[in-house]
Batch of 4 targets.
Target 1
Amino acid sequence: MMDLQKLTIGKALNLGLRHAMEQDPKVLIMGEDVGKLGGVFRITDGLQKDFGEQRVLDTPLAESGIIGTAVGLAVRGFRPVCEIQFEGFIFPGFDQISSQLAKLHYRTQGKVKMPVVIRVPFGGGIGAVEHHSESPESLFAHIAGLKVVSISNAADAYWGIQEAIRSDDPVMFFEPKKLYHSGALKMEIDTETSPGRVFGSHVVRAGTTATVVAYGPSVKVALDAAAAAEDEGKSLEVIDLCTLSPLDLGPVFESVRKTGRLVAVSEAPLESSLTSEIAARVQQECFYSLESPVLRVAGFDTPYPPAKLEEHYLPDLDRVLHAVDRSLAW
């Protein structure tokens, strides 16, 4: 029987974590303020009350300790889910992630598995101070041994967090914090019937004029741009990458061969980003289908600005439409 629930991204993550903990007693949640407070964004709200302090652990303010402890727990057969409070706080744990977590499965020829999920609220749009609005996903996508994903909607949040927890390899799970509690993005989800594989690129809006590829918080921007472009007689095909490493570009290639144009959108700074990789791979695979260069809409190559300036920093509908117009004018 279908169990339909209308959920925000935040509620979907909470319910997905709850179901994973019910199904497997080895699943643990750990991080700063994830227990009694329920996390600063309330994603783990109520879980410590229902599962106890030994399965939902409030940790010290020490990301290196959180990740290092998770590595040890994984060696002992547990499936830790670590919350990094804000993406800008992750760097004290970078050594543990890149040197230990990402390497142990490979180093031991598969004998030691690393079923660790690191949940990372990321991106801007919440009016926060520095180190609270960054987009460091490209750094982790470059590290061999890590799966890197970024969800953009409640259904992928609910099923994706459960799929990540089941993985025997470490997963960096990037969550668009500004969309956690958006009522406009509530989705009706069948919480009992799995849709199958969640991770991988997929078309979220069909079109023929140009392709727009995005992930995480930028998917909503791309969809809004596609809706606005329709009023001007343009049909934009929007693709949600979802998986950032390993990149699943098959649907992107197929779309570009149809439309001949591509705009890649991301909040991260432009240089040496995932949009760079997308552009390089598309021109490699779709060179004779392209009617114009691949264009990119992204954050600027500066530190994330103060809250009063972030609306000028973040890609928005107008910047995406401008890129589409440039592509069509080529």
Target 2
Amino acid sequence: MNDVLYVNGPVQNGPFTIAERPGKAAGIRAAEALNTLLDVGPVPHLWNTVTLAGDLRHRDAPYRDTVGRQEREERAIAAKYGAGAAPAGGILTDTAPVVAALALEMTERLLQDGVLTLAPIAVHLCTRCGHMTGTVAHTCRACGHQGSRPHTRRLLVWDRSPGTPVLARDDFHAHQAKPPGHLLTIAQNVPERLILSRTRDHGISLAPLGLDGLVLDPRVGVHIAVLAAAARLGAGQPVMTVTENAAANVAAYGAPFRWHDGTRLRYALHGRIPYDDTASLQRLCEVHRVSPAQRELFLAWFLPLCSLHIRAGITPAQLPALLKFWRRAHLARPDTPGSDGLAELRRRVAAGDMRWVMDVMTLSRAIPENPPTHGFTEEPEGAT
């Protein structure tokens, strides 16, 4: 098995379906396409369930006394996929038992090594619901109450040495690609002390560490979920497909958790895809006489791969040229599948070199026979 494994980054389990908002699953589709080219077996889709919004939805939901939070999350994820379109590799959430076990193992090791500490920190607690609002007084995001009280409690903390970067060029799996300068600049401005424990109704409990009522920060959890998926499949180089905005949000908190037992996690940045203008996409395909099967491959296979090359994001104005290019590559497909160039293509995919996507002949040999599924058969109705 190839040592490189692509796994999607954080997709929050919000109130949407993949068919309605395919942009949410761009990282899933890109990772799946790359793993197929590497001849990797089915890989689980990763979902982020530890969110304050999820807490609030559950509190306001009917039958919350009979349908627990875990079951509600599982039902919501299952509903994301079309009928009969569940992923072959299954689902892995950031609270799955295997993820929770690995999280506690890694956290305990980092505490023993002195990388992390359990330190008394002065914070503010909401006077209505007890939610931790931060180190300074803020309106409570959990209940909206403005009153808070100071309180000192032990928290899981990462204090890094002054000048120690939380993100470097080598953390990105992108051969001969331009370094993400804006993202690296953002990372340099992260506070030297980061609090890695949070008050949530749902998450990986830190009670075994003596932090009752606290869970591991979800930005840490999404990294550990990727490592758990890699461990399950025996891959030593997991690569998280993620947008630049998402990386800016999670990378600093996951920095101490990118290494485990010789396994190193890196990021593959991808841009956003303009799925929101459904009517324009439909007209574009009609003008170019694109068949339904080719349309699905263009939307759900080529564009996610293209977004790894056009990391700044694909604009609506680029879609006509990309569709023409896609048609040329599709027409150039060999009559019989062969191995010509396959070894070189796999080498480039494993190295994170995505320039091949814009080479007609290389792309033509990579196009799969059938469109992907997983809920992309309906008309797209929005994006993120």
Target 3
Amino acid sequence: MRTTTGARAGQYAALLAYLVFLAFPFLWLLSTAFKPASELASLHPTWIPQDPTLANFRQAFEEQPLLRAALNSLLAALAAAVVAVAVATPMAYVMARHRTALARAATGWVVVSQAFPFVLLIIPLFLVLKNLRLIDSVPGLVLVYVVWALPFALWMLAGYVRAVPAELEEAAAVDGAGRLRILVSVTAPLLAPGIVATALFAFITAWNEFFFALVLLKTAEKQTLPVVLTHFIGAEGVADLGPLAAAAFLATLPSLVVFAIIQRRITGGMLAGAVKS
């Protein structure tokens, strides 16, 4: 009994230490965003700002077009999420319901593709977009985001499809429903939570993405929010800490809110995909 209690206490202590480790960067970012220049230059920094100010936020909006960049990020992320889910949903259904050798090979490829680094993909993607004349365009960036989000979306949605009992579709077929009617009236409503969670995950991925946007977008008016944040760093690598922290804090909020909404659904989708029927 004592051993069990001690092990549980150790687990809770490790979990608490891990949470502190994860929360430290965000809390320090929040503290920096509200500190005046005098405190930022202090040799003895404090957690809580002694004289909190909103000057960093005003300066950030004055120095860089944050609203325009946020709009570009929002349009690209929304479009990528919608297209990725629209393409992945029927493909995931086929992969989950028709467990052929080809479907298993496709599933394996989906898993392996997640190990590819960005640098390995950027050259072929750049050449494809160049031939399509989509370099330095938001549609081209959306296409790249869809390609990047599609493997995980397929894997995640396939888990949700497997969690839907096939007997429900068979019962609907016995009652005379056709394949399209079964998909629309029986399967789709049960997949709705998974579709929403997958779309939100694709949105977060596109909203936070930096590397592809940096390489593919050259016009200042088309740059996304993560790229614009780098403009707070001078040519000599000196960062304007106050405005940078304020802008980064605002850019982080949407991701935190969306992830807080979908984290349980993502876990449910992973567990559903791990259960064999």
Target 4
Amino acid sequence: MSEQEKELRILRDQIDSIDGQLHELLNNRARCAQRVAEVKQKYQGDVSPVFYRPEREAQVLRAVMERNEGPLADKEVARLFREIMSVCLALEEPMRVAFLGPEGTFTQLAAMKHFGHSARNLPMQSLKDVFREVQSGAAHYGVVPIENSTEGVVSHTLDLFKQFDLKICGEVEVPVHLHLLLNRGDSLDGIKKIYSHQQSLAQSRCWLDVRYPDIEKIAVSSNAEAARLAANEGKGAAAIAGDMAADLYDLESAVKNIEDQIDNSTRFLIIGDQYVGPSGDDKTSILISVPDTPGALYQLLEPFHRYGVSLTRVETRSASKNSLFYIDFIGHSADPVVQNALQALIETSIELKVLGSYPSAVL
């Protein structure tokens, strides 16, 4: 045996030993999670226990990154713990998560990023179906898009918050990388049509105008649907979509990252019916209706300035005789300064609806 083989054998034996310790610790954690479920059921009686605590999960993931000493990157370690928590939570109660389908969309990717691979994903045909599924109790949570860094806010999501009595329980941001997908064996020169969602076509407009100005671009309901159509049609049909859609329909990523903005990303909201406690780094979202009079915007913004609350988004929605605003800001509704600002807004508004306070995105 060579000296190299001797050194490698020692290292591999060490890895085997560490793997054994990890395995034992993982099972110990899983048993502890089962015990947590038993305690909740014991003391909460007929009330359905709340197994998933977004604020607790955010605190755990932040602690993971804070204590990490490398060589693994902070977020890579946090993703590993995300999956460990997902598996352990499934032992307490399998999570049902509704999302805007079909399978292979960026919304499903957001659901998997936030809840891990052990949650059961339920594809819905529309955003309204996602809200309805959660409100009926058929799904524990839903994942809906709220804004894209290039295309702006998703107005339909805002409108649905007015129709349904649900709360925002979390947020997740997903980088949007778009690829030109071909059937295996096809060439870039043989493309006759390109399928994609209208938003993805817009996000890659410059790239398409330079390389395929005369090729037919067909807008469909989702990038996953685009990939399905391209796969079914075969030779000459292409799609613009992400990695999940490519894997799902066995397409080849002929050209990667064709989006015009390299930092393109979409923010998604987690909707549910539970109150989420403070995590130490939170956001709050509200819908507020104020009289459509001169100075209305100033009166709306002044309490935030007075109490030192930082805004992250202000979006105006049309209303008949009033002005309707969707506002995100830093802080939790349980914070005294936030309570003071909200009370001042209540006194000057027609209606104020707190959509939820929730942990800022960790991953």
